[in-house]
Amino acid sequence: MLTKAFQYKCWADRRALEAIGLIDAERFPDSLAFTLQQLNHMVIVEDLFRARLTGTAEPHPATNTEAVPGYEVLQRRLLASGQWYAEQVAALEPAAAAEAITFRFTDGRMGRLTREEMFFHVLNHATYHRGNIAHALDLAGVAHPADTYTVFVHATEPARREAR
Predict the structure, then answer these.
(1) SUPFAM superfamilies annotated for this entry (predicted)?
(2) Which of 64, 70, 79, 96 has its CA 20 to 30 A from that of 40?
(3) Residue range 2-152, CATH number
């Protein structure tokens, strides 16, 4: 299920990014700034959990930055991150999925999650922030894409719409 769920995440992220690209920056600078901040946070959290999953040094001291990169940079980073997670989940063996990893959150508090729980957190975290982005898109007059799992399944497997 996680493999399919990360395929869904990549699909939903692409749809959100396409919609963000339609925001009129001159008319709705606050909406654009908010969406970029949300993307920045999403990418940073994904970077942090990637480091925890791979046992490498954490690349960020916090879950946000004062300076927010531009749309193109965030787009590239989010798409690459989603692809990395999708590949990792597809190759995840059950014993590795159940392995618990102890780490320190950026606020200094300790955490302990299994690899599977970390993957689920990244998936759920992205869904939450795409919801926030959808509101900003509404405020900017850009239709936010329907990005639920059921829309994904039926868009990528249209035969499922057929009556049995």
Answers:
(1) DinB/YfiT-like putative metalloenzymes
(2) 96
(3) 1.20.120.450
Compute how many other C-beta atoms are within 10 angstroms of the C-beta atom of residue 105.
12
> Where do the domains of the chain lie?
2-152
Left, alpha or beta for 108 (phi > 0: left; psi -120 to 50: alpha)? left
pLDDT score, position 111? 97
- When pLDDT is cut at 50, 70 and 90, the band that residue 44 belongs to is very high
Distances (CA, A) of 138 to 20, 35, 119, 120, 134: 11, 11, 29, 27, 6
**Residue 67 DSSP code:** S
Q: How far is CA 40 from CA 4, 65, 95, 118, 139, in A?
A: 24, 8, 32, 19, 20
- Over residues 151-163, the mean pLDDT reads 89
pLDDT level of residue 162 (50, 70, 90 thresholds): confident
Nearest C-alpha neighbor of 18 from the set 143, 136, 126? 143
